[in-house]
Amino acid sequence: MIRVGIVGGTGYTGVELLRLLLPHPEVEVAVITSRGEAGQRVDGLFPSLRGHTDLKFSAVSGKDLQGLDVIFFATPHGVAMEMAPELLAAGVRLIDLSADFRLSDAALFAEWYHQEHSSPALLPQASYGLPELFRDEIRGSRLVANPGCYPTAVTLGFAPLLEAGLLEAGGLIADCKSGVSGAGRTARLGLILPESADSVTAYGVSGHRHRPEIEETLSRIAGADIQVQFTPHLMPMIRGIHATLYGRLHKPMSNEALQDLFAQRYAQEPFVDVLPFGEHPSTRTVRGANVCRIALHQPRPGQVVVLSAIDNLVKGAAGQAVQNLNVLFAWPENLGLAQIPLLP
Amino acid sequence: MIRVGIVGGTGYTGVELLRLLLPHPEVEVAVITSRGEAGQRVDGLFPSLRGHTDLKFSAVSGKDLQGLDVIFFATPHGVAMEMAPELLAAGVRLIDLSADFRLSDAALFAEWYHQEHSSPALLPQASYGLPELFRDEIRGSRLVANPGCYPTAVTLGFAPLLEAGLLEAGGLIADCKSGVSGAGRTARLGLILPESADSVTAYGVSGHRHRPEIEETLSRIAGADIQVQFTPHLMPMIRGIHATLYGRLHKPMSNEALQDLFAQRYAQEPFVDVLPFGEHPSTRTVRGANVCRIALHQPRPGQVVVLSAIDNLVKGAAGQAVQNLNVLFAWPENLGLAQIPLLP
Amino acid sequence: MIRVGIVGGTGYTGVELLRLLLPHPEVEVAVITSRGEAGQRVDGLFPSLRGHTDLKFSAVSGKDLQGLDVIFFATPHGVAMEMAPELLAAGVRLIDLSADFRLSDAALFAEWYHQEHSSPALLPQASYGLPELFRDEIRGSRLVANPGCYPTAVTLGFAPLLEAGLLEAGGLIADCKSGVSGAGRTARLGLILPESADSVTAYGVSGHRHRPEIEETLSRIAGADIQVQFTPHLMPMIRGIHATLYGRLHKPMSNEALQDLFAQRYAQEPFVDVLPFGEHPSTRTVRGANVCRIALHQPRPGQVVVLSAIDNLVKGAAGQAVQNLNVLFAWPENLGLAQIPLLP
Amino acid sequence: MIRVGIVGGTGYTGVELLRLLLPHPEVEVAVITSRGEAGQRVDGLFPSLRGHTDLKFSAVSGKDLQGLDVIFFATPHGVAMEMAPELLAAGVRLIDLSADFRLSDAALFAEWYHQEHSSPALLPQASYGLPELFRDEIRGSRLVANPGCYPTAVTLGFAPLLEAGLLEAGGLIADCKSGVSGAGRTARLGLILPESADSVTAYGVSGHRHRPEIEETLSRIAGADIQVQFTPHLMPMIRGIHATLYGRLHKPMSNEALQDLFAQRYAQEPFVDVLPFGEHPSTRTVRGANVCRIALHQPRPGQVVVLSAIDNLVKGAAGQAVQNLNVLFAWPENLGLAQIPLLP
């Protein structure tokens, strides 16, 4: 049994971490922080938790957190990088769900997040918390950068092709569709139901912060400079990301070979589900569960289309964070993560 | 470990039973039947279950089911009453999620379901599976009639007032709002998204099958003939029932006394959550969980409004069925039912 | 051709007024005001209007508005009552979509809106802009209080029964369901899609500002003190109000007589549509149109249920305001209001 | 005033044609046919039309239609091509909203629609009813093939680039998102709200009937063989198509030049709205109106992304059909098509 804390618990990743961690057999959630809600019961803010916890939000400082085994940062970017040095020095392990440690290049961080990185020296120590690709690094690290939601869906979809060196470098496209919860639990006009329901809109088409994150990971696994056209869209739904990925093969291969490539690559992965060739995963089949479902298409020889679906708050955020926790402690990777998706 | 079967597993109560029973520590789902899908993998029809089961639908007859400990009927009305006599004789316990054994009066059944009851002799043996009201009867029975979704929300909301004899007999109103999944997994034009989204409509206002069920139970606990005006509405959402219940007190009582009545009545109930006086439960706070959240209002002296929210597929169907299973076997009542609601 | 202005044009009633007034054959929209957006093109804020207007928001004062024929207030309460005296004195006619002049009693206004009424002397001059009930008063007035959305649906549904003196005074219940646009175009956390979609919740059950408005009107037409239990609910949809109204007849009457009562009462009304007895109007059948559809039920003798559906932004706000404009100028009442509902 | 008929009026294109044609100042809708609903009032099936028409569905044969000026086919494919020869011979003009005359090659039709074309001799006479590209042809024709919804959004978005010869031939991608009404008014399990709401899914990724239609038109305007990877997705909304289009420029051009190209190309088009460079049209801004809104992006030099949004039932079907009618009769092209989108 370890004792964990959640810093910044009033957002959707906060409540989702609680949903997964409260019943986790090896975890006690000892602290959850919020400045604005300090002193309030957590189940007052999130009535879904009534009967499952007596926790209150606290406004503890970094010092108070030093006795914990692990801290999850469910904060906006900029918080974890301030608190990390002291906590790491105190022996706490960190799983950061924000963007602070996802990019290895502090200059790139500054460019996309409009803020200097305050702990650039820690960047080399951070592992990128996508266990399917970097399990060994994560296991050995004390600072895990939990991937973005879009990068998770996109990277798992492209990875087998890029690892095998099968894709042309140019022309990768990731057309992504996300539910509104991806924008966070925040009172923005564009997110209210009359503005966001019954409508589709693209955003950030000319440039989005998840693009450099995607490109860094893909380049790393390809061993070459990979550029991706990344286009996010806001969907009138609560949860879910659907990534539609386009790439061209250097030379055509059979559908069977394509399917085998993915099936074998992910055969041992408990949280990646490769559907039969030609199927279409819908996000409703992953709702509430830590799973990425992938299906392959080759509409014309050499033109590959990969469909990749996750729940943005689970495999795209809190679930993946718990998966990383399990990796860190060498527990079975699906401990506390066996939820069956909620359908319908 | 007991072996259970699900008869009629292709609907929403079927897949929801699987979501709850597959991880249940005392249960093995041995059989799930469907004539139309016989031979097909269950996770082919419900991809949410991929990785969680290798079950296939089977077309077994009643005989093949006689070796099971418990059978859940997730069928339309009319099926369970045909199969029940033989199965009960063989020692199988039955939990019927359909309407066949909910009404104690075969003539009333015939009137509302336009079909003669084929096993009227069994009606006196059936317990009404609302454990909060009839736990002892259920425990001693071999045939449990799992309540309808609306009746669950309505009855739990009115019960403390009627048990205490506080309500005027006339004028009870249950204005209920349900998600579309309550209509079942069935290809009906009125249910397709362009017909049912972004709209509200009442239905069955002049008479709905759940009214006699509600009235029978309320009359029984009131010890008097209770009539209710029951008005169901179709909401543009997937899951959830919200019952808005109106009644008049014989004489005004304080809000505190009202609140105490409910708080004490349900203090020991793991699945009924009485909110602070004057709050408003939303169905999103019960999504995916076996809980009924209730809040009380008294806008004017003597005018009580009870708000009652459940997930129609869980506390309103499959979850309650599992709760009844736990009662039957004297297991802890929340065994396999500790899911935290999915929010957002 | 008259020249009109809209004060406070950045909300949903603002854009809806523009949708209806821009093509109105007798109207030129000369001014639309907003402090926050002054100088900006209206179609920048509302791209739906691109190609239909070159208007910009202006920050004009009351003086600049005095040359107009009519001003629509699409502001929060508290604005119209400040500006009204001067504008009326200058000969401008006012149609106020806010609550400032809906209640005839300044004390009641203060109680429910937590603000002293600044122009109580004007209250007797204000007509209540529900043409189906008060057409003659409106025609003779220079200050029209456009009704609230809920009161429109509720009052039209109860009116024939109360005018005819058929209902018992006690026990009137208005259980109402509204789309989220009724809460306005405002960045509130509870309105964002992940908080409001796929869920139903009641609000203001213990008391809501529309209750005194409803009760004043119903009492007036009944010639007696009428109390209503009014319960609003937030629905996961954009537009639409569905009022489910309950009342008891002094003595039972036939369904035919009930139907005749409504059919005759509204026979000459272009914007009230009485459906055949026993039907169920859905809000989708009124989307975008200035119509109230009503259907009647008598589930048990003497128990009447009236279903009343409107588009909260049209017959519940902007459309009714245009209807009142037409009344004021003795134009055909459906001038500019012949839109067919958008279905699906 | 001309007299028109609608063949197959019980679907969404049927009711949408009525919404647009009933108030059209030059049109009388004389006949609307349906075998299944013959004799029934149209407003019985579509209560949104109550008060706007007394039409009944009729089961007339081709002969009865010969006295009409124009017939709209709102039927599944296969009907118009059977009835067309006789009607054309009788002097009736035809606007076919189905796919029968969209492809110029009968063999291609047979391949994608699994049916021999029964009137291949008529194919050369059919004009492709996208007025922005083929206005002159339409004007001179008596048989107009109204384009598919996806092809309309995709073609208008790619056209200026292809006409100017700026795009590389390979690598065109059209990632499209459609509301559920695009699947028609039909009782299919996958379309019911619990199956289609709160979820995104791709379909027909390996091949969809609209691909050959898109490719034929694009090839024609490019004067070269154009291939497109077309990927449709089902969105949890009622109306709207959002096409996200990807192409590579032969050589980079400035954003200004790109914007100018589109702005000038569509400057005289009443129904194509080119937004400022870098904006993101949402489908809610076109709801109910006959307009295509387009915005341009060039995230990296040479990589163009075109966003194109329409209402699938208006500019993607019935509205475009009325636009074609106006072209045929040389009326102002926006006659009866000046509806302002319904927002929110």
From TrEMBL, chains A, B, C, D:
Domain Semialdehyde dehydrogenase NAD-binding spans what residues? 3-141
A single cellular component GO annotation: cytoplasm
- What does it catalyze? N-acetyl-L-glutamate 5-semialdehyde + phosphate + NADP(+) = N-acetyl-L-glutamyl 5-phosphate + NADPH + H(+)
| Keyword NADP tagged | yes
**What Gene Ontology molecular-function terms does this entry list?**
N-acetyl-gamma-glutamyl-phosphate reductase activity; NAD binding; NADP+ binding
Q: In which pathway does it act?
A: Amino-acid biosynthesis; L-arginine biosynthesis; N(2)-acetyl-L-ornithine from L-glutamate: step 3/4
The subcellular localization recorded is: Cytoplasm
BP term (GO), one = L-arginine biosynthetic process
Q: What class of enzyme is it?
A: oxidoreductase
Q: Which UniProt keywords apply?
A: Amino-acid biosynthesis, Arginine biosynthesis, Cytoplasm, NADP, Oxidoreductase
Q: What EC number(s) would the UniProt record show?
A: 1.2.1.38
Report whether Oxidoreductase shows up as a keyword of the record: yes
Catalytic-site annotation from UniProt: C149
- Give the primary localization class: cytoplasm
Please report which protein family the annotation says this sequence is part of.
Belongs to the NAGSA dehydrogenase family. Type 1 subfamily.
Biological role: Catalyzes the NADPH-dependent reduction of N-acetyl-5-glutamyl phosphate to yield N-acetyl-L-glutamate 5-semialdehyde.
Recorded hits in NCBIfam families, A to Z, give:
argC
| Record protein name field | N-acetyl-gamma-glutamyl-phosphate reductase
Q: Which gene encodes it?
A: argC
